C-alpha cells in the first residue's frame, strides 16, 4: 500500500492511498470540519466518506505530464510509464498548476 498526503494551499487536506482494490481519497477531520475550506475538486466533494475508484482519480491523473515529458520523467526516475501513482508521488509536489500538490507519506 502506498500513501500520499494531499495539500491545498500548503495545508493538509487529505490522504490518497493505493491499495489492492484501487484508490482511496479522504479529507482529514480538521480540513473537513473547517467550513472555510473548499473541496479540492468538484469531482472530490468535501464529504466525510471515502472516495473510492478502481483507477487513479482524474483530478490527480491530470496533474501528470503527458507525451515526451512523461517519457523523460519516467526514464529519469526509473518509473514504469503505466505506474501513475508512483509518478504522482515522485513529481506531484513540484511545480503543480494550482493550489493542490501531493507528497509521499513518510513511513
Mean pLDDT: 93
Please give the largest β-sheet. Answer: 5 strands, antiparallel
Gross morphology is: globular
User: How many domains, in number, for the residues?
Assistant: 1
What helical percentage do the residues reach?
A: 25-40%
Number of strands: 5
Q: Which stretches of 5+ consecutive residues score pLDDT under 50?
A: none
Query: What is the radius of gyration computed over CA atoms, rounded to a whole number of angstroms?
Result: 14 Å
Order of helices and strands: EEEHEHHHE
Largest beta sheet: strand ordering: 4-3-2-1-5
Q: Give the termini separation.
A: 11 Å
Structural class comes to alpha+beta
Describe the protein in words.
There is one protein chain. The protein has helices at 29-33, 58-61, 67-77, 84-91; strands at residues 2-8, 11-19, 22-27, 51-53, 100-104. It is α+β, with helices and mostly antiparallel strands and 107 residues long. The protein has one domain (2-63, 92-104). It has a five-stranded antiparallel sheet. Strand 1 and strand 2 (11-19) form a beta hairpin. The longest helix is centred in the C-terminal third of the chain and has 11 residues, at 67-77. It is globular.
Q: Could you provide a short overview of the structure?
A:
With 107 residues, this protein is an alpha+beta fold. It has helices at 29-33, 58-61, 67-77, 84-91; strands at residues 2-8, 11-19, 22-27, 51-53, 100-104.
Secondary structure blueprint with pairings:
Layout: E1 2-8, E2 11-19, E3 22-27, H1 29-33, E4 51-53, H2 58-61, H3 67-77, H4 84-91, E5 100-104
Antiparallel strand pairs: 1-2, 1-5, 2-3, 3-4
Amino acid at each position: 500500500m502506498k500513501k500520499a498526503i494531499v495539500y491545498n494551499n500548503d495545508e493538509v487536506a487529505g490522504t490518497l492511498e493505493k491499495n489492492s482494490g484501487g484508490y482511496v481519497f479522504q479529507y482529514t477531520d480538521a480540513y473537513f470540519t473547517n467550513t472555510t475550506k473548499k473541496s479540492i475538486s468538484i469531482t472530490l466533494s468535501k464529504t466525510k466518506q471515502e472516495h473510492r475508484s478502481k483507477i487513479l482519480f482524474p483530478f490527480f491523473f491530470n496533474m501528470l505530464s503527458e507525451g515526451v515529458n512523461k517519457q523523460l520523467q519516467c526514464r529519469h526516475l526509473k518509473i514504469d510509464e503505466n505506474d501513475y501513482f508512483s509518478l504522482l508521488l515522485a513529481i506531484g509536489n513540484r511545480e503543480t498548476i494550482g493550489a493542490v500538490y501531493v507528497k509521499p507519506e513518510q513511513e
